[in-house]
Amino acid sequence: MSAIPLDFYVLFSGLLFVVGLYGALVRRNVIGILMSIEIILNAANINFIAFSRYVSLRPETGQIFAIFVIALAAAAAAVGLAIVLALYRNRKTIYTDEIDLLKW
Amino acid sequence: MEPLYLVARAGLYLASLVTLAAAVMVVTLRNIFHCALALALVLLGVAVTYVSLKAEFLAVIQILLYVGAILTLMIYAIMLTHRIGSQVVPQTNRQSLISFALLGLFNVFFTAAVLKTDWKLNPSGGNLNVDARALGNFFMGEYVFPFEIISVVLIVALVGAVILGRSDE
């Protein structure tokens, strides 16, 4: 079990987080931003499980946290995509720099 | 070391490489539908990582919930908001270069910090088995209050999504 170093999981999830954050920062499409956020949440989940497996005295805590994160990600995706659909119906665009109603 | 173990380890490294490549595809491809397909690959690769961490129940949850439900929702949203001629619309905003530079810098520091840290590893934690029965016992026992809270949050979010998503007439 300890043959795979913890560093591998931490570096892997760090790279995944950076890629997701890049997508969330530069994407114009709102659905693309939501997908990037899902990648970020997955990176966080890998960290939860890896640390609970390697460092914590109770390896189940990380998995319980990961299940909560997955449930909240499902809620975020449902609400976010509903907002995207409402936005598309009202403004006929899903590109973030064209949605500037609250910008002055 | 037995050869089967080495094969499994090589498979894990290969899966993580595929996952990272698919993640790059998610954030860079122009066609948003192709991005959704690459996202499916990312989620499956993360499920492989869960299995390697002995979290089989979470891997199943990951495939059922993410690949089965959330990705289907995303593909529905993509198809409902499709704009004709979207191939010529630029997909990134003007901050892409500076974001790339700053995040690359962050990753260099992060890698250095992780490699220099001396983790206080718990030698026995890796051998305990956490199966679905144990997780269920924890959810019904010690973590029952967060479990109830999350069910209320899910109900509120789904009702809110229905109200936001319905048409006005």
Report what the structure shows.
- With 104 residues, chain A is an all-alpha fold.
- Chain A is built from three helices and no strands.
- Chain A is elongated, with a radius of gyration of 17 Å.
- The mean pLDDT of chain A is 88.
- The model of chain B has no long low-confidence stretch (mean pLDDT 86).
- Chain B contains six helices and no strands.
- Chain B has two domains: 85 residues, Up-down Bundle (Four Helix Bundle (Hemerythrin (Met), subunit A)), CATH 1.20.120.1200; 39 residues.
- At the A-B interface, helix 1, helix 2 and helix 3 of A face helix 1, helix 2, helix 3, helix 4 and helix 5 of B.
Strand content of chain A: under 5%
| Content-based structural category of chain B | mainly alpha
Largest sheet of chain A: none
Question: What is the CATH topology assignment of chain A?
Answer: Helix Hairpins
Query: What is the helix fraction of residues of chain B, given as a range?
Result: over 70%
Instruction: Name the largest protein-protein interface in this structure.
Output: A-B, 74 and 84 residues
If you consult CATH, what is the topology of the largest domain in chain B? Four Helix Bundle (Hemerythrin (Met), subunit A)
Task: Give me the strand/helix succession of chain B.
Answer: HHHHHH
Strand content of chain B: under 5%
What's the CATH class label of the largest domain in chain B?
A: Mainly Alpha
What global shape of chain A is seen?
elongated
Distance between the termini of chain B: 67 Å
Which structural class best describes the helix and strand composition of chain A? mainly alpha
